Amino acid sequence: MADGGPDGLDVRRSRFSVAFWTANVVELLERAAWYGVFVAITLYLSRILAFSDIEAAAVSGVFSAGLYLLPTFSGAWADRIGFRRALLLAFALLTIGYGGMWLLPVLLQSAGLATYGREVAFTGLEHSGHKWLFVPVMLFVMVGGSFIKSVITGTVANETTADTRARGYSIFYAMVNIGAFGGKTIVQPLRESMGNEGLVVLNLFAAGMTASAFVLVLLLYRTTDGHGEGKSMAEIRRALVAVLSRGRLVVLILIITGFWMVQHQLYASMPKYVLRMAGEDAAPSWYANVNPAVVVLTVGAVTTLMRMRTALSSMTVGMFIMPISAFWMAAGNLVGAGEILGMHPIAFMMVVGIGFQGLAESFISPRYLEYFSLQAPKGQEGLYLGFSHLHSFLASLLGFLTSGFLLERYCPEPRTLSEAEQAQRLAALAGDGPMPAAYAHAHYLWYVFVGVAVVSAISLVIYGRVVARADPRKTD
């Protein structure tokens, strides 16, 4: 039938615009760039720029935290300048930032201030202030990345109808996960082929992804509506003050922060832990992909299972799964020598633990926003939800900092050991004798996060009972 007939009208309504598809493709490219870099960020900082474990954790924690705090503010600015300009600005900043992360160590090496190669991580930057040149470079990525979430989700909302919105967001989340999976997957081949130099070249890959996204936006992105939620900066500031003035919301944010601390610190702890304890053949970036894979496979079944239970009930189940996750991560250092299904015990137990972490997320993440909205004053749920991810801001800061101190205490950088201990570690990884005493209690790192998760889970139970007595509507 011709497009002018009723069926033709339905076909047109079911199609997505060029702006919609452009936004989703550049989202995929941006996620590939971000996750490819971020899964290896603490390795890059320590192995290439000579940051200590604590310094690397602090810098990357601020990096991650900023990307959870800034989007509400940058989204308001995007509303003013228009989505197209905001995206062009974002991808320009990201390309400069990722390019700078590649260029910085290259320039330091060219100037004779540092040396890095396949086997030699670095020489010359241990006590140099030049490594801190990374911080302004990092700011480009942080600010640029903060625009992406609000503008892309705003585009999906603007370029879909009531009939196509659910399918539109389904496509969007598929693009997010494909990009994240692809970005993390590329890290291991680079490390295998180039050693530590791969950690530098990875940033060039990320810059290429965001530069491609810039070109796509420049050529194809045209949207009829360049505005998002339309909040002014003054409204956002008032909302933040209002959220922080409500004790009930602050307590909820702090409790959920405990769960996300265990989740976020994985990017700080796990890569260094498995490489130091299982050897350079370990594939931490691939292990990290177990989490989204488990979420994709289980979230539908979990949502169906818990559909008749309250959001608090579902979140509580997830909170009690989280300490089990951290315990399995610790177990790799306790099961003895010998491979498990062809994997080093450290690596195998890490994969199991990450799998449980993904399962816990399936119980918590889909219901958290629902429950958070119940704690907001009637009629102000939307305004308050703008700051519902404050827990991720806090979790990044606290989780990464805690990870840095724990790594330095229980699973130190091999270069900080004596030559005899370094030789003993390499012999142990080859199957000849035990690890040095410095690594005897490496698994204590995960016990700390078992404790954090247990305290958070118990706190959520207590919180739910207190709120139920004070206001039953908040838990029903």
Indicate the radius of gyration in whole angstroms. 23 Å
* Termini Cα gap: 50 Å
In N-to-C order, the SSE pattern is HHHHHHHHHHHHHHHHHHHHH
Q: What is the name of the CATH class of the largest domain?
A: Mainly Alpha
Discrete helix count:
21
Largest beta sheet, briefly?
none
The parts where pLDDT drops under 50 for at least 5 residues are 1-12
Helix content: over 70%
CATH architectural grouping of the largest domain: Up-down Bundle
Which helices and strands appear, and what pairs or packs with what?
Layout: H1 6-14, H2 18-38, H3 41-48, H4 53-69, H5 71-81, H6 83-110, H7 134-158, H8 165-185, H9 187-194, H10 197-220, H11 233-245, H12 247-264, H13 266-278, H14 284-288, H15 290-305, H16 311-331, H17 345-375, H18 381-385, H19 390-410, H20 419-429, H21 444-470
Helix pairs in contact: 2-7, 2-8, 2-10, 3-4, 4-7, 4-19, 5-6, 5-7, 6-7, 6-10, 9-10, 12-19, 12-21, 13-17, 13-19, 15-17, 16-17, 16-21
List keywords for this structure.
74% helix; mainly alpha; Growth Hormone, Chain: A; 476 residues
Protein model, in words:
There is one protein chain. The chain has 476 residues and is mainly α. It has 2 domains: 14-227, Up-down Bundle (Growth Hormone, Chain: A); 231-476, MFS general substrate transporter like domains (Growth Hormone, Chain: A), CATH 1.20.1250. It has helices spanning 6-14, 18-38, 41-48, 53-69, 71-81, 83-110, 134-158, 165-185, 187-194, 197-220, 233-245, 247-264, 266-278, 284-288, 290-305, 311-331, 345-375, 381-385, 390-410, 419-429, 444-470.
